[in-house]
Amino acid sequence: LKITDLTGGNYLIRFDGIPNGTYDIETTPSLSPASWRWWMTTNADENGIIIVSDKTTPGSPSKYYRTVFR
Q1: pLDDT in tens, 23-59
Q2: Under 8 Å CB-to-CB from 26, ≥6 apart: which residues?
């Protein structure tokens, strides 16, 4: 997992996965306790890379990400 701050509340998120695999991406605002919620479904490219973007609003809580292979 790599998260790049693009400024202005925009983030680029990179996950490593299985080439051409389908993944659900889930988020939670806290890890204690975690309350994972589906955010999107996407596919890894031929190298197993998944790249998505997310935008947050100022003052929003922390956000954690995970992938679930389908």
Answers
A1: 999 999 999 999 999 999 999 999 999 999 999 988 8
A2: 36, 37, 38, 39, 65, 66, 67, 68
Evaluate the CA torsion angle 33, 11, 3, 46 in order and state its sign.
positive
Q: Which two structure tokens, joined as six digits, stand for 24?
A: 């659900």
CB proximity list for 59: less than 8 A, separation 6 or greater? none
DSSP string, 13-66: EEEE--TT-EEEEEEES-BTTB--EEEEEEE--TTSEEEEEEE--TTPPP-EEE
Buried b (16+ CB within 10 A) or exposed e, 39-62: beebebeeeeebeeebeeeeeeee
